[in-house]
Amino acid sequence: MLRVQRALAAAGFRRYATYRQATAAGAFTNTVFGFLRTYVLLAVAAEAGSVGGYSGLDLVTYVWLGQGMLAVVNAWEPLDLAERVRSGDVVADLLRPVDPLGAYLWADLGRAGFAVLTRFAAPLAVGAAVFGLALPEEPLTYPLFAVSALAAVLIGFACKYLIGLSAFWLLDIRGVTMLWVLASGVGSGLAFPLTVLPDWLSALLWVATPFPSLLQSSVDIAVERGGLGHGLALLGGQVLWAALLLWLCSVAQRRGVRKLVVQGG
After folding, report:
1. CA distance 137 to 119
2. Cα–Cα distances in angstroms (integers) from residue 24 to residues 15, 21, 71, 218, in the given order
3. Is the pLDDT of residue 260 over 70?
4. Looking at the chain, which terminus has fewer C-beta neighbours within 10 angstroms, N or C?
5. What is the pLDDT of residues 71-122, one digit of tens each?
6. Higher pLDDT residue, 24 or 49?
7. Quick check: 242 and 155 in contact, CB under 8 A?
8. Could you give the CA distance from residue 219 to residue 212 in angstroms, rounded to a whole number?
């Protein structure tokens, strides 16, 4: 089984490695937006003193880590699962010896591995060269950030998979996808630190949604916001969300398959 998982992850890595021009264009785009966001937020910080408690190098690091993690987490690009459900090709997936959930998951992890080497490293290197970045003072922060980024990838995948599974009931998931992109883009901290929101809204996002675990948690861990204790709490929340959402994927898939069989699929 482990050999199958490695093969699926390697296939996901190779699939995205073939799109060299798209990778370069994506890294360039993320870098350009990194400059725009940096200058805008630094201008706001110059007037207000800080942006949601971030200032100086921490604010710059927040921006460039977010730009790099954007492609690694990749929670906003839908899977082809919904199209396979609509076309009926999902029946072939269900007949294979590998569970579709596992097959999609390991392929996505391979994709994320490729993104770390390209779409994450390139913008971060530019940000470090031009602006400088705040490096963690605690050695433990580095492995914590790595695990946190992995948890963010799992959460993003699970959310995309659940959206794809909704095609069993909706067939056309474009509305759900648009709502997800809008809500998660704001709620993840991609546009701005969640600390700029009213306290009640920020608390609601942290407690009731997985959105902050997609980006904000990992970035807060990297800049050591609140110290290691706070970072461990954020990581614990990410692990819980990842476990819960993957379990929901399994439950929703079983129910979707049952609906498919009842309908004669």
Report:
1. 25
2. 15, 5, 12, 24
3. no
4. N
5. 999 888 888 888 888 888 888 888 888 899 999 999 999 999 999 999 999 9
6. 24
7. yes
8. 10
pLDDT higher than 50, residue 33: yes
Domain ranges of the chain: 2-262
9: tokens are: 């992850």
The structure tokens listed for 217 are: 């948690």
- With 0-12 / 13-18 / 19 or more C-beta atoms within 10 angstroms meaning exposed / middle / buried, residue 98 is middle
Record the tokens describing residue 6, joined without a space: 């490695």
Measuring CA to CA, which residue among 111, 148, 115, 113 is closest to residue 30? 115
Distance between the two ends of the chain, CA-based, in angstroms?
Answer: 28
Q: Could you tell me which of 75, 32, 86 has the C-alpha nearest to residue 181? A: 75
- How far is 148 from 239, CA to CA, in rounded Å? 8
Handedness of CA 15, 124, 46, 234 (dihedral sign): positive
Q: How many residues does the chain have?
A: 265
How big is the chain by its Cα radius of gyration, in Å? Answer: 19
Task: Encode pLDDT of 223-253 as tens digits.
Answer: 988 888 999 999 999 999 999 999 999 999 9
Residues 92 and 56 sit within 8 Å (Cβ to Cβ): no
The pTM of the full predicted model, rounded to 2 decimals, is: 0.93
Question: Each residue of 54-74: pLDDT tens digit?
Answer: 888 889 999 999 999 999 998
Helix, strand and coil content of the chain, in percent to the nearest 5, comes to: 80, 0, 20
C-alpha to C-alpha distances, 11 to 18, 93, 205, 259, nearest whole angstrom: 11, 16, 35, 30
Give me the pLDDT at residue 97, please.
84
